Amino acid sequence: MSDLLDLAAISLLPTRLWRLAADGMRGREPPSCVLARLVAARWPDAASRVATLRAKAAAAIARAHAAAIVSVAWNDPAYPEVLRTIVDPPALLWTRGSSASLNGVAVAIVGSRAASPYALSVAEQLAGDLAARGVVIVSGLARGVDSAAHRGALAAGGITVAVLGSGVDVIYPREHASLAAAIDERGAVVSELVPGTPPTPFFFPLRNRIISGLSRAVVVVEANERSGSLITARCALDQGRDVLAVPGNVLTGRNRGAHALLRDGAKIVESADDILEELGLAARKSAIVSNDASPADPILACLTPGEPSDLDEIADRSGLETATLLPRLFELELQGTIARVGGGRFVRVDKPC
């Protein structure tokens, strides 16, 4: 509990200190020492300021507990490993829904808030196709492309993660409250900001590094030259993630940002297969098909033909962590030995002799 309190207090420090805090934690410095050191170096009333930060952190933790919000700390085994590797990972992730969904193979789909009907359709289709194949869809719950991506993943019975620029109990925009509730059931709503934090323009560019940090690749569907999606793309490049873009109408000018990415070497996306190929998952498909799946496989052994099982049931029976389980389910689905059915459940498919 003391580490949680100090990590929450660190998250309340000015954002310019977050990277320094991450450096300390990466060096295995205890959170209490990180907090004390950063405060003492900048404020003369260090003891009083630390006490105030801890009091605010305690209030945030109490608010989270009352709202069934789960905190995943930097030093928690459940913290997504891909996010831990970025230069400035959040000290804490506050989550609604299933924090296990943060550890799957993920692709971010982002784009314009004032998206064209074409962009909305493409985002929903790409998200649905990827989610149906076991890929977690990450986006920012914003109007336009983000919400279309979340809805596409949900419609396919897949998993999606929304990263907010506010506390997870302060949904923005407000009209997406029902969408956030649906995401809770099939994935997670997450934020590095303590519960109760209102949406502030300053926080939205910061959260983009989390969107890309959770993902293997970022797909920009539609973006003008000043789109926040380009910030996400830059974060992705800095983090060593793949950046892909969907071409659009050259006459309107509303996709010039994405076209600039394509000119700079981003892979062109016309279908989900283009994304899977870039991630090396399409190549894995042929390799998987060449191997005979055996009921000795721990996942196949816990599935019965004709009896669908959800992710939690499979994890319990197989003893596999979600981070291992999701990619393996994807492989078996490509191989044709299991099938995804309604509600994100899986069933074994026994091939005829």
Can you list the strand order of the major beta sheet?
1-2-6-5-4-3-7-8-9
- Can you tell me the CATH topology of the largest domain? Rossmann fold
Structural class: alpha/beta
Main sheet makeup: 9 strands, mixed
Strand content: 5-15%
Q: Averaging pLDDT over every residue, what do you get?
A: 86
Number of continuous helical runs: 16
End-to-end CA span: 56 Å
Please provide the count of β strands.
11
From the alpha carbons, calculate the radius of gyration and give it in angstroms. 21 Å
CATH class of the largest domain: Alpha Beta
Principal-axes geometry comes out as globular
Spans of at least 5 consecutive residues whose pLDDT stays below 50 are: 283-295
CATH architecture grouping of the largest domain: 3-Layer(aba) Sandwich
State the share of residues found in helices, binned by percent.
40-55%
Provide the number of structural domains. 3
| Order of secondary-structure elements | HHHHEHEEHEHEHEHEHEHEHHHHHEE
